Amino acid sequence: MKKYYPASPIVFFVDGLCVFVIVGAICAVVGTFIEKDEPWEICCILIVAIIMIPLMGSGIASLAWKRILLTPENISVRNDFQQPVFISRVQHAVTVSYSEVTKLWYTKTTTDSNGNPLKWVFIEMPYLIFECKGGVQKAINLHYFSKRQRKKIINEVICRVKQAGNSLKVSSAEELMKNCS
């Protein structure tokens, strides 16, 4: 069983930004009680801190929650954390048995893993799409993983699908990813 966790520059940047905002909010609260005499200043800083600390903390937890699990029989991902009301989930829970896979491809899109359009996403995100027996399509979002990790994951999936007795038209991650830049 292999687990892949995001390790791309975007993850480190977002985590660093979240930690920076949390530390800034804590410093602002402490500084407010030391130097500020006006009650409206104290209230404004406290309100911002009370909103920002949990919001940024959930951002860090959300990135830590993302992982792809490859077992000998299947590949699976968990649901994304439910974000604030105006942001939809990008990844829904998916489990794909290697023995069910008939076709595999790589694409970039602004939809979620169920194919629903996302209102607040402006960057196309890479997805690994599995077509299973019966024509059912399942997608795994690879946006938070580095290019090297994506290649490792895809090569591992191709290998395991072939070990399960299914034939695929693609033989490597490079071949699968070359048409999608």
Describe the structure.
Helix content is 42%, strand content 20%. The strands form two sheets. The chain has a four-stranded antiparallel sheet, covered by helices on one side. A three-stranded antiparallel sheet has the order 5-6-7, covered by helices on one side. Strand 6 and strand 7 form a beta hairpin. Helix 1 packs antiparallel against helix 2.
Please, how many helices? Answer: 4
Helical content class: 40-55%
The helix-strand sequence is EHHEEEEEEHH
Please outline the major beta sheet. Answer: 4 strands, antiparallel
- Integer-rounded radius of gyration: 21 Å
What proportion strand?
15-25%
Strand order of the largest sheet: 1-2-3-4
Mean pLDDT: 78
Instruction: Tell me the total number of β-strands.
Output: 7
**Tell me, what's the shape?**
elongated
Q: What structural class should be given to the helix and strand makeup?
A: alpha+beta
Low-confidence region ranges: none
How far apart, in Å, are the first and last alpha carbons?
A: 30 Å
List the helices and strands and how they pair.
Elements: E1 2-4, H1 9-35, H2 39-65, E2 68-70, E3 74-77, E4 94-97, E5 101-109, E6 125-132, E7 137-141, H3 147-163, H4 173-177
Antiparallel strand pairs: 1-2, 2-3, 3-4, 5-6, 6-7
Helix pairs in contact: 1-2
